[in-house]
Amino acid sequence: MSDHHTYKKVELVGSSRTSIEDAIQNAISECSKSVKNLEWFEVVETRGHIVSAKVAHYQVTVKIGFKIENS
Amino acid sequence: MSDHHTYKKVELVGSSRTSIEDAIQNAISECSKSVKNLEWFEVVETRGHIVSAKVAHYQVTVKIGFKIENS
Amino acid sequence: MSDHHTYKKVELVGSSRTSIEDAIQNAISECSKSVKNLEWFEVVETRGHIVSAKVAHYQVTVKIGFKIENS
Amino acid sequence: MSDHHTYKKVELVGSSRTSIEDAIQNAISECSKSVKNLEWFEVVETRGHIVSAKVAHYQVTVKIGFKIENS
Amino acid sequence: MSDHHTYKKVELVGSSRTSIEDAIQNAISECSKSVKNLEWFEVVETRGHIVSAKVAHYQVTVKIGFKIENS
Amino acid sequence: MSDHHTYKKVELVGSSRTSIEDAIQNAISECSKSVKNLEWFEVVETRGHIVSAKVAHYQVTVKIGFKIENS
Amino acid sequence: MSDHHTYKKVELVGSSRTSIEDAIQNAISECSKSVKNLEWFEVVETRGHIVSAKVAHYQVTVKIGFKIENS
Amino acid sequence: MSDHHTYKKVELVGSSRTSIEDAIQNAISECSKSVKNLEWFEVVETRGHIVSAKVAHYQVTVKIGFKIENS
Amino acid sequence: MSDHHTYKKVELVGSSRTSIEDAIQNAISECSKSVKNLEWFEVVETRGHIVSAKVAHYQVTVKIGFKIENS
Amino acid sequence: MSDHHTYKKVELVGSSRTSIEDAIQNAISECSKSVKNLEWFEVVETRGHIVSAKVAHYQVTVKIGFKIENS
Amino acid sequence: MSDHHTYKKVELVGSSRTSIEDAIQNAISECSKSVKNLEWFEVVETRGHIVSAKVAHYQVTVKIGFKIENS
Amino acid sequence: MSDHHTYKKVELVGSSRTSIEDAIQNAISECSKSVKNLEWFEVVETRGHIVSAKVAHYQVTVKIGFKIENS
């Protein structure tokens, strides 16, 4: 058995009408549909769309890290 | 009619006693008093004041982008 | 009496199961147990742990500034 | 007469269907409608939209510097 | 139907003998062979090879963003 | 009465034949001709012109922050 | 035959109990199980875990570049 | 006797009504009240307060390095 | 019992005549003399002294993170 | 024969009235008058002068790498 | 006669016992002994040595730009 | 005799088949063939070539500083 692991990071942009936290969770939820073993995220950028002088969507770019299976 | 647009970005610091999202919205609301067509924001910095060991104000620096009219 | 002050910044990582704001406050609360006169914070990094495709903890690195006493 | 000048920088996003250079020029042309004495630009970011796997618009963020009159 | 979308960014290096714009387009064209719904690109780095004191290839690193289907 | 304020930052380049501090003050003085309530500055870049192997002008880029009136 | 190539970069975190170089190699070895034509790596971040005041694992984030086949 | 030393860096904000250099020195003087063996400083950020369109205080963030005793 | 922890980061410069890894370990060893529960490190900067065209000392700046007790 | 090479990078600013690519080539051409074996370039900064609301010169800072002879 | 010029930047560290401005000037004076046509400088880093809790030397890293003759 | 010195930094890329430390030393050794008084180095970038899924060469970009003679 190996004494070390290798991880991969993917970069996603989650969006949400309600909060930065919700946009992060949406990115993670979407990522989990195709990747297992998600372990951590890092916020890279926070931005969003404005409609009628209101935040319409928070758009949060996150890097999501996961262990490569059998690594 | 032009086939391209030009946008301007202005940099504001919104503040709020309650949340980062509210500080962003406050900057956008203030900006909308003098500028139309706000389209997006980018968070540049998040900081705040502390009073009696509590966050007293979140201060969020945002760049706000809007289309220059008739561009 | 001096006409200037000196401040120190310390770097902490606050965590929270619920929100980025709560993680910031937790870092400040912990810091206030050993340091007085906390005046401001600056968010340096936002990341977190993921468990079962859900954010388990937000981990927010903040620099916290305080006045050095008698400076 | 003063022996020094003061300059201001504004941040614009020029766009173009054809090239990065054209997007820069479009931002400058738009800026010149309301500001005189434009002297230099600095490219801050280059990005763009994609439609049908083709670059539809280059979007180039530039800072444009100009001398403040009578400074 | 969801009221939000999730996007993924991938990082490619396009190259071209002729121009920076052509290198960007080459990266996008290659990316479109395996991914649908490409929406935007961000230039991360511009460099190139020199042969006999001439630019032989522009090499432009771009992040390309696309909507995750059914997100 | 609002319990929060909004601030705007503008970016200027002050110049001076004598010192970095003087260049900063020149930018602030010029800015104060058109804007009230200047509250703080942040140095972004320090550079200058050289003539006959002497610094001819310090050129200091500063962001200047001020409270938006009635915000 | 095309006169240019397109490359992709993926971001991995290799780990090792013994050295930074070994962590880089572990990331590359793992990557090579699913991707061919690996050509270069760029170190993005170096960090690690500490156990009993000893480095337990070096964790090196690398971007790994490879030629897209038939590009 | 060890053939190597370990240093620690602390981050302070010195302020001064007169100059950037004086703000740096004030931070160092304050730091020296509690720490010995100060060896070097690195300027991290220069900013300040404005009162009545004049620089009221320069605020210079410095990292100050010192040798850990007996290291 | 709290469901969250707070961590502190300190910044040290470890040095070594032999390797980057050894410089990191030296910083950690020195840090562990006064702080318990060291958990991770992040390399911030790698530099060194040269004597007679040989590396005399590697100097590696690391941030070391540890859990604040009872947090 | 050595199994490794050493490269040097020099930093130049090429200018051109016509395009970013031409400014890069001009820097390379000038560099090649005094240095052989130029191998690659990296764009560091893109800016330019404006005259009468038109780009008068693109000014592109590039690092140019070349193999040190006999290394 | 060419309608464009090429510039080179060199990186020097000037030092001074008295001020940041003096350290910049010292770097420029030294540079001018071997290079003609110095045109501008850019401050890259400001640091210094401390002796007996006083700034002993300011050390300012500057990039100095000059026109390549006959370019 | 002057009470201050001026230093120059040059940027080299050292390579090695065996380690990051060896690549740094190779850059320094090469640099010392033409320059005296090398005093320090700063690692700017670490990357390398991959052949057959193995690191073929570490390529470490370093800035090397040396005192300008008679400065």
From TrEMBL, chains A, B, C, D, E, F, G, H, I, J, K, L:
Superkingdom of origin: Bacteria
Protein name per Swiss-Prot or TrEMBL: Flavin-binding protein dodecin
Lineage start: Bacteria, Pseudomonadati, Pseudomonadota, Gammaproteobacteria, Oceanospirillales
